[in-house]
Design brief:
The chain has 114 residues and is mainly α. It is 89% helix and 0% strand.
Length: 114
């Protein structure tokens, strides 16, 4: 627009009230839709928070179970170490006893053979 052209001082909408009322009605409708959407979001957030709290309870229960299993595994490990030590001791005694018995038999045979 050139500076020397005449401009309207008021937009047409301000002179004629009907188009402005239509715009206001559209804005009011949009605000109502926004309120409805926010309400739905609040419901969704509430549901999500409840689900998160249930997950947190489940996680705490799972951690407790894991700690119990860890303790039981440590207990079993100690029992197995003890059992293995007993078996090693018994095996060593058997080997020594067998070696002494074989040596005794060998000396007895050698005494009779001579």
């Amino acid at each position: 627009m050139r500076g020397n052209e005449a401009r309207k001082l008021y937009p047409e909408d301000q002179i004629n009230e009907n188009p402005m009322e239509a715009r206001i009605a559209v804005i009011q409708n949009d605000i109502a839709n926004i309120k409805e959407n926010v309400g739905e979001l609040q419901v969704g957030m509430k549901t999500a928070n409840e689900a998160i709290s249930q997950l947190q309870v489940g996680q705490a229960t799972l951690q407790g179970s894991m700690n119990t299993l860890r303790q039981e595994l440590n207990s079993l490990r100690e029992e197995l170490k003890g059992a293995i030590a007993k078996l090693e001791s018994a095996l060593l005694k058997w080997i020594v006893g067998t070696a002494i018995s074989v040596a005794s038999v060998a000396f007895a045979i050698a005494k009779f053979v001579k």
